[in-house]
Specification:
The protein is mostly helical. It has 13 helices and two strands; from the N terminus they run H-H-H-H-H-H-H-E-H-H-E-H-H-H-H. Helix content is about 55%, strand content about 0%. It is an enzyme of class 4 (lyase).
């Protein structure tokens, strides 16, 4: 969930219990190297193993991540401007074509999770242009930078711990690439949400959100677990619009997804 804190997903994420003594945050990168050993103690206390700790210690402060976090202007646009900037007509056109080409796949997801194709395709198109650009930043360094940064440290720290746990499991590596805020894969999941909602959709024994089947299955699972009601509407004022709000906290984003999804679904 590209979030570009789009994925303010799960604002009340509680999947990981953190020890009381937290590593101190900072608003500049100058103390990042000194912060890493302190955060390593916190990570070990949360169950992170040696591979995860090594990924932490090899990480670097990400200036582009901080720059992106301070400049999220598109969420302040009007709905019309937001949809224009994000290329809504192209997303709808390509979404319809994708649905037509692979209708059985999207039908299987709706049968399993109750989420219609249009919603999944609108999110996929909005987040990464249907996988055409899934980011160019190192996930581990990006998410650790945000845990270190004081602005939203409490929100990103559980995701940073989750990222290190995913390294332990072999799901991520220190060099895995994603978006500027540590989101990963076709629909841009934050690490904590990979842990909680990730699905092995193609049955190969691992959750890989750079695989489209895994990513869309995981997205549908996220929405269902957040309360999606099969067959209910998803426009503003309808039951499932609240679930779209769980995916992204920006009202203009939520509105755009609902509109594009309805156009894709016809």
């Amino acid at each position: 969930m590209s979030f570009r804190p789009a994925l303010r997903l799960a604002a009340a994420l509680t999947i990981l219990a953190l020890p009381a003594a937290a590593a101190p945050c900072s608003n500049s990168g100058g103390q990042y190297e000194q912060w890493k050993p302190t955060f390593a103690q916190e990570a070990r206390a949360a169950g992170v193993g040696q591979r995860g700790i090594e990924a932490l210690m090899s990480s670097s402060y990400s200036t582009p991540t901080i720059s992106a976090d301070r400049n999220q202007k598109s969420f302040n646009y009007s709905l019309d401007r937001f949809m224009q900037v994000r290329g809504a007509p192209t997303i709808v056109s390509q979404g319809k074509a994708r649905k037509s080409r692979n209708s059985a796949f999207y039908q299987s997801l709706e049968q399993a999770y109750g989420v219609p194709a249009g919603v999944l395709l609108a999110i996929h198109g909005m987040e990464t242009g249907f996988g055409n650009f899934m980011g160019d930043s190192r996930v581990v360094s990006s998410i650790l930078t945000l845990a270190y940064d004081c602005r939203r440290s409490s929100f990103f720290t559980p995701h940073a711990i989750a990222a290190l746990q995913l390294v332990d499991r072999g799901v991520l590596s220190a060099n895995s690439v994603g978006a500027r805020h540590g989101e990963w894969g076709h629909t841009q999941f934050l690490p904590g949400n990979v842990v909680r909602y990730g699905v092995d959709g193609n049955g190969d024994g691992r959750v890989d959100l750079t695989n489209q089947t895994d990513a869309l299955s995981s997205t549908a699972n996220f929405l269902r677990q957040k309360g999606w009601r099969p067959g209910a509407g998803y426009q503003q004022g309808q039951p499932n619009f609240r679930v779209i709000q769980e995916w992204n906290a920006a009202t203009v984003y939520q509105q755009a997804i609902a509109i594009m999804a309805a156009q894709i679904d016809g």
